[in-house]
Amino acid sequence: MSRKTVRVTMAQALVRYLCNQFTEIDGERLPLFAGVFGIFGHGNVTCLSEALESVQDQLPTWRGQNEQSMALAAIAFAKAKRRRQLMVAATSIGPGAANMVTAAGTAHANRLPVLLIAGDTFANRIPDPVLQQVEHFSDPTVTVNDAFKSVSRYWDRIVLPEQIISSLPQAIATMLDPADCGPAFIGLAQDAQEVAFDYPAAFFEPAVWSIPRPRADRTRLVEAAALLQAAKTPLIISGGGVRYSSAEEKVAEFAVKRGIPIVETIAGKGAITHNHPAHAGPIGIVGSTSANALAGEADVILAIGTRLQDFTTGSWTVFQQDAKFISINAARFDAVKHRALAVVGDALETVIELDEALGDWKADPALLPKAQSLFADWNKLLDQHQAVTNGPIPTYAQVVGIVNETSKPNDTLIAAAGGTPGEVTKGWRVKNPNTFDCEFGFSCMGYEIAAGWGHAMAKAGNGTPIVMIGDGTYMMMNSDIYSTVLTGHKMIVVVCDNGGYAVINRLQQFKGVPGFNNLIKDCRVKEPFAVDFVKHAESMGALARRCESLADLKTAMEWAQTTDRTTVITLVTDAHAWVPGDADWDVGVPEVSERESVQKARADQEKIRQKQRVGV
User: Fold this and answer.
1) pTM of the entire structure?
2) Which of 104, 139, 112 is nearest to 125 (CA)?
3) Which CATH number applies to 218-373?
4) CB count, 10 Å around CB of 340?
5) Which of 191, 290, 486, 497 has the lowest CB atom count within 10 Å?
6) DSSP string of 206-228?
7) Does domain 5-209 have CATH number 3.40.50.970?
8) Residue 228: which residues within 8 A CB-CB, separation 6 or more?
9) Does domain 387-572 have CATH number 3.40.50.970?
């Protein structure tokens, strides 16, 4: 009996396969790949675009303005969908592919799935060197696409049409695996895209994918329960993995039931609402005094779904030297950090099983009220910094307060780089779960506006993305304002114009270096001047308004909620006023310098390093 086959080109087969992959979200069957962000060039326009054009009603293709930004939009879409539905970002060869490497790094650092597809050189090498080909004299197989190897969880180059039969399922399995989740990259040789092949019909049969939920080892659960039961001042750190596991409610219930305060990482912020009774604020360098105080006293830390980045741990200075960690994580690599008791498993299932193993145990009944009191003091401090005053220049804190006040419960706040992440992590009071996206694993300048596009697609009208961005990052990547106007995906963009790269200027001066090459006034320029962001945004089809005061900002935000397209609001913001923080950060400071200010900063840095918890 002959095998049933379908004869199509490799590019056509790839697209047909993607169209037949599905996922289930809240009981509803949906396409696993919701669409493609694409920029076509000679490496993909003649074959891949031909295949995508024929299925555009099933697998829509959205034209980006920049390869990096469209991949960032795809990443934000996946984050908004909590890694259950994905997007593709497709580009030609050479510079188009290289532009996506930054986005791949962003996805990799944040454990987020995106399928990156780039054209490649010719497998047969006959026309070499082709346009946009880099040539390595000692290795003719190397192309720009090899750069993705360091920032991809899965990497492949297709030089024969039948290779996608094994490659595509592996790529998808990697992107959906909670332990290995991250970007998958596939390079398509130009001559391989055009080749027709008799593919097995079974390859194109519809498949429904689900996210695996690995259970933890029973012995480790017993050990974790015993360690918690012996704790006098336990603390829960809720990370991004809590959100991706849909464990928000269970972790919150667990905390209240057991009387353990919850503090949040940047990626984990928004798993619970700001006013939840167990919530004690964000932890770490851009965290709250309440969370950091609790961390400094904690004897057992239950870290759930976090990779314990330095901004969470204060470069490992916020904890006691002898504090013990229980780490619940789907990824073994993350679970074993800092001599933690590694409980490798899905956050939701593991917390449920740990709860069962704890029996009737509860933490000291005074612990949660103490955390609530510390958090109340933190909220008073926020109120003071966010209060509307008659100062000459609005502060970030005041801007965050007004934008937060005028946002609707389902609006999503988006930030990524510069001074904004610290200010929103500290000062944004989450109204509904999963409405906060601060990309601070890679701190990728340029993520914000592109991410607004991705979130707008994912939200589908259920709330509006609100992008908070500094003038420096806005200048780096803003073209997706135009994208959202073209496609009808509305977002609100708040541009805080503080005259350059203000937060890195703050760090520079804090470590003893005079202001240099960060604020525009300190750069090698003929004459400093301010960009007219209103005119710039309007030139891309957006609505825009400049604010002269905090009262103007509130009025403008209320207006922006009523508009029918992307709306940009800009105002001058203080470059030197920040909400205080009390955690340390380990950065390099010159060991030798003629500057007295640097010498003092070096001495202070050595004191920080003496406080660090030594781990692995």
Assistant:
1) 0.96
2) 139
3) 3.40.50.1220
4) 22
5) 486
6) -EEE----PPPPHHHHHHHHHHH
7) yes
8) 234, 258, 300, 302, 326, 354, 358, 361
9) yes
